[in-house]
Amino acid sequence: MTEKLNENFINELFKIMFSNKVALDICKEHLKYEHIPKELPEYKLILKSILTTYINTNQPTTIGIVAEQHKANPQVQEALSEIKRSDLPPIEQVIDQLETFVYNAKFQLLAEEVEILYKQGKIKEGIQTMSVKSREIVESPIKKSLDKFLRVFGDFEDQLRARREEQQKEKPIKVPFGIDPIDDITYGGIDEGEMALWIMPSGVGKSTALKWTGVWDAIQGYDVLHIQLEGAKDAAFDKYSQVWTALDYLSVKKGNVPKEHHDRIMKSLEALKSAGSDIHLYCFEKFGDVTMNDVRNLIIEYEKELGKYPDIIIIDSLDLLTPGDGHRYGIDTQSVKQRMQRTAQLMSNICVQFKTRIITATQTGDLPLVNDLDFVVTRTNTEGDRTLVKPFSYVFSFNQTFTERKLKRGRIYIDKLRYSDPKDMIFDIATDYGKGRFYDRGRTMKLEKLSVEKKKRSGRKKVNEI
User: Fold this and answer.
1) Strands 394-399, 409-417: parallel, antiparallel or unpaired by DSSP?
2) Mean pLDDT in consecutive groups of 10 residues from the start of the chain, 466 residues
3) Would you state the torsion angle of the CA atoms of residues 229, 231, 232, 233, taken in this order, to the nearest 10 degrees?
4) pTM score of the predicted model
């Protein structure tokens, strides 16, 4: 009697098959129709649709396409709904479980075959069958597909083809930061599976910088999930409203839109709603006890509600999270370092698993008041120490002297840039905190123009001196 898969596991396995080619390759070879209980014929139909499309197109199909193929079958529609509502576990765990199931199923069939031979008195044939087929089971592990070496030369053509196919998808490749100097040096923004970190002293504008990117990306049509770990939900909502409306905070907080701005704001609002742009804001009510598992579950809930994962996740902020790994972290310096480093690594794992991008921030340790244009915050100033930046592709700090703050200006220092080698590591930008905006694009362009002209004048002066 062949073993059957559990319905809950089938839902999780099928969910991965809808998006992961590695899982599809494994299931195409090892998952049989008879492994699905006869009481669940709708899942056999779904499996047939998934594998048929994959064999014909070499691409995963979607829940929507399968639903359309079986729109007259209510059992299939209900099963697809269950699959969509299921959690998306790590592929390694699912394949481990599938491998265990397949081993057990193959061994059960082998045991039944050997038992029949034994009852027939065919002892030697039974021993030979056991020897050969047991070796076949052991020497054909399912997980070998996960651990396959990638050959730089042998897989070159396949990898190029995969890159071209990825470029042709509507799914965004780069999501911008909304800050021109950074978007220029990153060739358009942050890529899938990458993370960026802002390092700033307390009160300088970590939340303002993060919300600026959130608004900018939503306006550009990207799906944004903002996770707020401190402060009230209403306060975070008001700050976001201030950024996109360009109103002062008090007007937003009181719900008053000045008459002279009303038509402009309503027109912008209608355009954004028509385009489907939005920022999904979630504030955890518990403070100081939010784990990376909580964050992961929230992303899964987002997908259940919206049918897709966010293009970018903004987490405000890193230093308020805990790993949730069962270890009790103290408040001494070493424990804080370990907690933040472990949290950052788990955050990176989530970023890769859900094929998204994460931008977060952390504050520096205690810093003396510095009014020096040559001083910049670096990774050495973080509470998590310099090794905290390892999982991040991009690390920036924002720096302001007293004079710069009065002039609504500041300097961005590039601490880490994984794929670029810019000539300048420091950029001057203009800010507009009065409207909740970390980046004033128009004034920044003027600053850049003045800087270029100043360099030209300085160069001519040196030539004349020579």
Assistant:
1) antiparallel
2) 75 85 82 85 92 85 90 92 83 79 76 85 86 72 56 66 61 86 93 95 91 94 92 87 88 84 87 81 78 92 88 94 87 88 94 93 82 90 86 95 93 90 87 94 86 56 40
3) -50
4) 0.66
Distance separating alpha carbons of residues 451 and 208, to the nearest angstrom: 25
Opening angle at CA 170, ends 298 and 294, nearest 5: 10
| Residue type present at position 449 | K
Q: How far apart are CA 423 and CA 196, in angstroms?
A: 20
Q: For residues 19-36, b (16+ Cβ closer than 10 Å) or e, as one string?
A: bbeebbebbeebbeeebb
Tokens of 69: 């193929």
Which domains does the chain carry? 7-145 (1.10.860), 174-454 (3.40.50.300)
